[in-house]
Write a structure and sequence with these properties.
The protein has 421 residues and is an alpha/beta fold. 24% of the residues lie in helices and 14% in strands. Strands 5-6-1-7-15-2-16 form a seven-stranded mixed β-sheet, sandwiched between helices. A hairpin with a 3-residue loop joins strand 10 and strand 11. Helix 6 packs parallel to helix 8. Bound molecules: 2-acetamido-2-deoxy-beta-D-glucopyranose (3 copies) and zinc ion.
């Protein structure tokens, strides 16, 4: 009897996923493979020597929700300065699945897919402990892997974080020291964040951090409210460009702009949800009833965890390219929603016309930017798109330190970075 209900539940779910337009096998996508990549243009073949700094420095900048293509919405002279004299992923940086903020920021700094670094969504419940992870959770047991700040201090170098998901979590010899680690507060003006980073270059040379992060919550905050095509986004992008200009000018004033490796990325893109592509779980009765208490999240990540005793096997069909299964924290039923779809329990007539992200990383709308500028990056070079798990190795390679094992390709850095002379 119990067994029978399991079987029918499973097939009903399969039926359900098909009926509601959820594809569990999306179109395959070709990921860049380091061996087949070719530089489109390069004038130099070795890294440029440092002029003023004693050691390599990396500033990792994130502009949240900076969808690939936003850089053409409006003149962005400062970002384009980095692009023209740096190395750019010509068709954007590919986020990891789910294309959400916390999983992606933590993949960028660990080189691990979310299943391996443990931050499988922005919000989830641990099925073993019953504890809930939220964006405020700082207990180290949630955050697996070794983030860059931890790797850097492990090698006796200094790291500084001006916001980044996970940066306040004490791990290994990283204890988020007040001098070099800021507790998240979205109200801090962007100018102040940049001024603090610039201030690090005024310190005695052995106190200048080798690795720094800066995080800006725009244009994601506008994107959620108004969608990717609203003039407010254009304004937010222009503002980010102005802030990048402030950083460049400040570095130039200190004579270190050409010595610093700047890596500018976003975490994911954004897609409009104005087409009213709504799916209501309750409308699917009488075929199947999914109680609200089983649903961990609705959209863009439909995650359902039935209670003990019901064990659907859907997860087996989930595309391997998404690397989203090897963690007990991941719900056993994941609905991969088509672009722009929204799922809710029932129709509360809450039509929204705004923006969302979190969908399959194969969608172009989920892509973001990658720009590298500085001594280790060739000027004016374009490289094909790649996944953000490659960035960890890139940073450890620039800093000449041994990173932890991760999901990036070891040879990838050799391709994107100029070799040391
Ligand atoms: C690019 O770098 C060259 C020096 O190699 C410099 O003369 C030029 O002004 C730079 N261009 C931009 C747009 O920053
Ligand atoms: C939701 O309910 C409203 C009001 O009853 C209706 O106008 C709308 O079409 C419904 N939406 C969908 C997607 O069924
Ligand atoms: C990702 O990296 C972790 C840590 O090295 C490893 O255990 C795991 O097998 C890797 N997964 C994939 C898909 O490469
Ligand atoms: Zn984000």
């Amino acid at each position: 009897m119990a067994r029978k209900s399991v079987v029918s539940f499973t097939s009903l779910i399969e039926l359900l996923l098909i009926l509601i337009g959820i594809s569990i096998a999306a179109a395959p996508i070709v990921f860049a493979n380091a061996n087949t990549l070719k530089a489109s243009y390069s004038v130099e073949n070795v890294a440029r020597p440092l002029v003023k700094l004693k050691r390599p420095v990396v500033i990792l900048i994130s502009s949240d929700g900076f969808r690939f293509g936003y850089q053409f919405k409006t003149p962005t002279p400062n970002i384009h300065r980095l692009i023209r004299n740096g190395t750019e992923a010509e068709t954007g940086l590919i986020p990891v699945f789910p294309t959400l903020t916390f999983p992606n920021h933590y993949s960028i700094v660990t080189g691990l897919y979310p299943a391996y670094h443990g931050i499988i969504a922005n919000w989830f419940t641990d099925p073993n402990s019953g504890e809930t992870f939220t964006k405020r959770s700082q207990e180290p047991h949630w955050w697996l892997g070794e983030p860059l700040w931890q790797t850097v201090v492990k090698h006796g170098l200094i790291a500084a974080t001006y916001f980044w998901p996970g940066s306040e979590v004490k791990k290994g010899s990283w204890n988020c020291p007040p001098k070099y680690c800021q507790p998240f507060n979205k109200k801090v003006p962007f100018e102040e964040r940049v001024d603090t980073v610039l201030g690090y270059f005024d310190l005695p040379s052995d106190e200048i951090p080798s690795f720094m992060t800066v995080y800006f919550q725009d244009p994601d905050s506008q994107g959620h409210r108004v969608g990717p095509d609203h003039p407010e986004i254009t304004e937010a992008v222009a503002n980010i460009d102005r802030i990048i200009g402030k950083l460049i000018t400040g570095l130039e004033k200190r004579g270190v702009f050409d010595d610093v490796n700047i890596i500018m990325v976003g975490d994911h893109g954004m897609v409009g949800t104005c087409d009213g592509k709504f799916l209501y779980l309750e409308d699917l009765a009488p075929w199947i009833e999914i109680p609200e208490s089983w649903v961990q999240s609705y959209y863009p990540l439909l995650a359902i965890r039935p209670p003990a005793g019901v064990s659907p096997a859907i997860v087996e069909d989930f595309p391997a390219r998404l690397h989203y299964s090897a963690n007990y924290r991941i719900s056993p039923i994941i609905g991969l929603l088509d672009e722009g779809f929204m799922v809710e329990q029932r129709n509360l007539s809450q039509r929204t016309c705004a923006g969302a992200h979190g969908y399959d990383n194969a969608y172009f709308s989920m892509r973001t930017i990658f720009i590298g500028h500085g001594p280790k990056f060739a000027k004016g070079r374009k490289v094909p798109s790649f996944e953000n798990v490659q960035i960890y190795n890139m940073v450890t390679s620039i800093l000449n330190i041994q990173g932890a094992s991760n999901n990036g390709t070891a040879s990838f850095s050799n391709f994107v970075l100029l070799p040391n002379r």
